[in-house]
Amino acid sequence: MKQSGQAFLPKLNPITTLSELVKNHTSKSAYLAHCEEQNQKSLKEIYKIGSPSLILIGPEGDFSSKEIKLALDNNFKPISLGNNRLRTETAGVVVCNTVNLLES
Prior knowledge:
The chain is α/β, with parallel strands linked by helices and about 100 residues long.
């Protein structure tokens, strides 16, 4: 926070299962970044500026087909983070940067 000049401490929530999170989230907008081909739109195309959002990024090896179906069945919108497959930690940085650029 000090190095970047930001006075914002991110909120860290308790660990929960994916199923609990997907079924019980209260975000206005929910997105799922995964690698299965489903003609996903890019995050920058469908992100709702100013709307509290939940963006899920899969673990190494991606979400399972069952997990993807669960999220989509619970109103998550599938998104793409680009043409390249990203490592989990890189995808998180890409999402944060994209949201920051869209919100500024």
